[in-house]
Amino acid sequence: MTLIQLRDVCKFYEKGAVQAINNLSVTINEGELTALMGPSGCGKTTLLNMIGALDFPEHGNVLIQGKPTTHYRPIHEYRARMVGFIFQFHHLISSLTLLENVELPMLPLKISAGKRREGAAWMLRMTGLEHRMHFFPFSVSGGERQRAAIARALVNRPRIILADEPTGNIDSKTGKKIIAFLIRYCLENKITLVMATHNPAIAKMAQRTMQMRDGRII
Q1: Could you say which of 74, 98, 136, 142 is the most buried, measured as most Cβ atoms within 10 Å of its Cβ?
Q2: pLDDT (tens digit, 9 = 90+) per residue, 74-92?
Q3: DSSP states of 78-134 as a string?
Q4: Contact indicator for 211, 188 with CB cutoff of 8 Å
Q5: How far apart are CA 218 and CA 215, in angstroms?
Q6: Within a 10 A sphere around the Cβ of 184, how many other Cβ atoms?
C-alpha cells in the first residue's frame, strides 16, 4: 500500500538560483525501509523535509496517504502524529532531562502530563536508557544522546520516520547498533523509514536504496 508519493516535485532556493529537487517522482510503500544515498547537496535533506512538511515544493505534489501535505491542517499536528524526525545532531534541549526531551513531541497532541511521562519512560526503556532518563544531555555519551533522539522520534508511534544522517556524529560501531535497533523497531511496528546516509554499510541494512544526484533519483 502506497504511503508516500512525490509527483513531479521541484524545489528551489536562493530565489530560484539553486534547484534542490528536480522534477522528482517516487513512491514509497507503507512499512518500507528506504535509504537515500548521494553526495552532499544532492537533495536528500530537502526530500526528507518535504515529506515531513518542514518545507513545501514550488511545483508538483507531496502526498501522504493520497493527500497533499499542504492540505493537512494544522500542520504541526500532522508532524506530531505522522512523522518522527531524527537528525545527525541530536537537537536535545540541554536544560531538560532525557525524559523531558522525549515528552516534547506529545505536547501538540494534548496528552495529559501523566500519560506523557509514562510514554516517554517506556520509550527510553525500549532504547536502553531507563538508567539515564533523569540525566541531562551533557551528562551522557554521544551514543546515548542519539538513542534519546530516536526515543523522541518514536514516542508518538508515527507512521513515518525520517532520519537524516542519524549516525553521522557518532562512532561506526555505536552507529550500527543504533540503526539495527531502529530498523528492527520499524519492521516490528510496520513503520516506514526513509533514511539519508553517506555510509554504504548503513544503507545495506535497509530494504531499498535510492541514489540521488542533482535533485533527482538516478
Answers
A1: 98
A2: 888 888 889 999 887 778 9
A3: HHHHHEEEE-SS----TTS-HHHHHHGGGGGGT--HHHHHHHHHHHHHHTT-TTTTT
A4: no
A5: 9
A6: 11
